[in-house]
Amino acid sequence: MSGTFLYEGKTKIVELSEDGQSVILTFKDDITAGDGAKHDVLTSKGQFCSETTARLMHYLNTKGVYTMFINYIPPNKIRARKLKMIPLEVIVRFKKAGSFVRRYGGTEGEDLPEALVEFTYKSDAMHDPLMCVEHLEVLGILDRENAVKIINQAKQAANFLKEFFSLHGFELWDIKFEYGFDEAGNICLGDEISPDTMRLRKAGEIFDKDIYRRDLGNPMEKYEVVLNLCRSILL
């Protein structure tokens, strides 16, 4: 299945579907870190991340969260709503980790008193700088009303996923979302939900892209574990 090519990113190809009413996302086997400075191709990664995304977005849809997901096309494609993507990464943090610790100190894995939402500008060249709501307004990226909507929607989606993973004995430390506007101007959760976009831990073990970032081996074994638990969500 293929359509009209629209865009190719580091880990996905986006095509306009044959009917022109949706897009097809093809998940590649590429994995990157350090704003693309580190790059490898890992067998099955596209399949694991696409199916995990499909099942978790379907789960969120059943909870009333509006996502891009329409249907899963095995092994590594998703049919999704057409969105005008907002050039932001929206990070929901439950614990201190990664760049948060580098910026503000603290201990990796330390609880935050409440869920924290951060915006970063999506630019490898600028290393995804942190932005406040005033930045979004002044630079014309997003108005305050929609920024607040995204904060609330991101917290809601992250809490649903945190609850889901906790039922399986996993801790969701943080998660990165991306949002866009659908053709009616509604904010919609897009892009991907997978071990590439979250920190997920269980009994001290890492089940996310930190395995790759830290050169701890091939992360695909752990990605497959996450996919298998997500298969409890029926499509």
TrEMBL record:
The biological processes this protein is annotated with in GO are: 'de novo' IMP biosynthetic process; cobalamin biosynthetic process
Signal peptide from the UniProt entry:
none
Q: Name the keywords, alphabetized.
A: ATP-binding, Ligase, Nucleotide-binding, Purine biosynthesis
Pathway listed: Purine metabolism; IMP biosynthesis via de novo pathway; 5-amino-1-(5-phospho-D-ribosyl)imidazole-4-carboxamide from 5-amino-1-(5-phospho-D-ribosyl)imidazole-4-carboxylate: step 1/2
Q: What Gene Ontology molecular-function terms does this entry list?
A: ATP binding; phosphoribosylaminoimidazolesuccinocarboxamide synthase activity
Reactions catalysed: 5-amino-1-(5-phospho-D-ribosyl)imidazole-4-carboxylate + L-aspartate + ATP = (2S)-2-[5-amino-1-(5-phospho-beta-D-ribosyl)imidazole-4-carboxamido]succinate + ADP + phosphate + 2 H(+)
Q: What is this protein called?
A: Phosphoribosylaminoimidazole-succinocarboxamide synthase
| Gene field | purC
